[in-house]
Amino acid sequence: MKWPTYRTLAKRAESLGLNRLVRLVGSWRGLLVLTYHRIGDADQCEFDRGVYSTDEASFAEQMAFVRSHFEVVSIDDVVRRPAADWKKRQAVLITFDDGYIDNYEIAFPILKRLEIPALFFVTSGFIDQRSISWWDEIAWMVRKQYAGASDEEVDDAIVEIVENYYEIPEAECEAYLNRVGDDAQTGRYSDASPVWMTWEMLREMAASGMSFGGHTVSHPILTRTRSGNWEHELTEGRRRLEEELSVDVQVFSYPVGNPDCFSADLKQQTARHYRAAFSCYGGVNQGRGAGNWDRFDLRRWPVYGPMRQFHMTTTWPQLLN
């Protein structure tokens, strides 16, 4: 039996009016944390198109929908209030990961116009060094190698190589990327990456009330690295954000955020420096039909696709608990 995809379920639920009906009744209670990466036209990107959450028009529509249907909260609300306070609420927190420039150019004006507070988890080394991320570099090399191939072939090749990267220890990562560059006959990407925000942009966002969280210095999958590196990644990224933005960085998000990307030991070490930490594998926190409130595994829903999928995500988030 072939199970329907999430996209198919979203389309059916929307066409049958199920999402609207369930929203009237209220399908969940608690804190739903939505995660975005990039906003814009993925088809025009020579890097990883898989990190595009949605386009500009859809993002604006999504934010207007959230503002109309839910209680939009800030990170200060989350760290200040105890778990019991969320059991009867339908609260939404908007977050972004990594520090992409379209967060400033596209998302920030929309958030400001709608008066929606958002939390940006920034990888400090990307801002400081303008270095390319490993997933964007893989996509760039593969796109050069498969020039002329169908989008499906290219995307499948990128996904396979990225998934292989996930499984290797940190000590082998550079050699792996070198092999990908050799196979693609491109070599490694050597220019400064054009995709990151600047400190000036981030300061403007901070002055307008946006919040910021730690997301390491170099975006390693921490459970693939030596635990001796954790302290540097946890603290130096935070230090740079506080130094440049004059803000209090209270929270952290684990790179990639899948259950195997953090551990009990890592959570314990994170708790020495932050008031809370976020994963990114779906679900809703606390409340009816929700997961337990674990302050160092606060769950987030990664957003992808058009409005009908967003309606599904915000109507049935407890399905992935």
TrEMBL record:
Q: Which UniProt keywords apply?
A: Signal
A single Gene Ontology biological process assigned to it is: carbohydrate metabolic process
State the compartments where it is located.
Secreted
Q: Where is the NodB homology domain?
A: 90-321
- Give the PROSITE patterns listed for this entry: NODB
Which domain of life does this protein belong to? Bacteria
One Gene Ontology term, aspect cellular component: extracellular region
Molecular function terms from GO = hydrolase activity, acting on carbon-nitrogen (but not peptide) bonds
Give yes or no: UniProt keyword Signal. yes
PANTHER family associated with the record: POLY-BETA-1,6-N-ACETYL-D-GLUCOSAMINE N-DEACETYLASE, PTHR34216
Q: What is this protein called?
A: NodB homology domain-containing protein
**Organism for this UniProt entry:** Blastopirellula marina
